[in-house]
Design goal:
Strand order of the largest sheet: 5-4-3-6-7-9-8
CATH superfamily: Vaccinia Virus protein VP39
Bound molecules: S-adenosylmethionine
Number of strands: 9
Helix content: 25-40%
Largest sheet: 7 strands, mixed
Structural class: alpha/beta
Number of helices: 8
Order of helices and strands: HEEHEHEHHEHEHEHEE
Length: 230
């Protein structure tokens, strides 16, 4: 990774990402630095695409499923910075246990140093997405962009999309990560063929599935269109 690729981001966000992509041990909530693995992350190109989608849409209410070390989180917070404010909710039941609180720590420090983000701009929900997403709907939340990068089994991703769609703002977007997996690609194909209330948005990143909400879910009770798995 070259720092030039991150040049559209602010300095604080660039510094955090350069350290993480550089493979440096990261600060956990226990005050210790922990080695990080090189696979649990989005790529720089994917992060910049995610960031660009948010900035282009002027998105200010963001949601992500799957926080881990917080690569995607930093790109999303950088977009809120450009929007002049907003909120990011990150759902992850294993942030404290598997990831030492690294992603949430980065997010909190970036918000606390930000000249434009209010203290409550970032919140971490320590619960499984299928429960947390229902609670967000119950709370009347609307999200301009949702990034889904949690548990990657077909049924889990489909549930995440289905529930996230209920809190998606009109014109808002849902982005699925890891299309290289058959499980995720099958969800992309299901949405493409069955969710007439979303249109697919092409991007340069073939590993991302991007859908924009264009209407309401008007399918009747028995609606089903067969779809290819890839
Ligand atoms: C691939 S990692 C996310 C990487 C992150 N988006 C990034 O770019 O740095 C997947 C994350 O999903 C979380 N996860 C696993 N099961 C989950 C569930 N049921 N609900 C929400 N998150 C879950 C894991 O703890 C892990 O942090």
């Amino acid at each position: 990774m070259s720092r030039d690729e991150l040049s559209p981001l602010g300095e604080c966000h660039r510094d955090v990402l350069a350290s993480m992509y550089g493979g440096e041990p990261q600060l956990g909530e226990d005050g210790q630095r922990h080695p990080i693995d090189a696979t649990t992350r989005i790529s720089v190109a994917e992060g910049m695409t995610l960031h660009g989608l948010c900035v282009a849409a002027g998105a200010t209410s963001l949601l992500e499923v799957g926080l881990a070390y917080g690569f995607s989180t930093v790109f999303l917070l950088a977009a809120l910075e450009k929007a002049g404010g907003g909120t990011l909710v990150s759902i992850d039941p294993f942030q404290a246990t598997d990831w030492h609180g690294i992603g949430a720590g980065h997010a909190r420090r970036l918000v606390s140093r930000s000249p434009v983000l209010a203290p409550g701009s970032f919140s971490w929900v320590e619960d499984r997405s299928e429960r947390a997403l229902v609670e967000l709907e119950r709370a009347g939340r609307c999200h301009d962009l949702t990034f889904i990068d949690g548990y990657h089994r077909f049924d889990d991703v489909l549930v995440d999309f289905t529930l996230a769609a209920r809190t998606c703002s009109p014109g808002g977007a849902i982005v699925l990560h890891d299309r290289w997996l058959d499980s995720v690609e099958a969800v992309v194909s299901f949405v493409r063929n069955n969710r007439g209330d979303f249109e697919e948005v092409p991007t340069a990143c073939e590993n991302l599935g991007v859908f924009r909400r264009t209407g309401d879910d008007g399918r009747d009770w028995s609606h089903f269109v067969r779809f290819p798995l890839r």
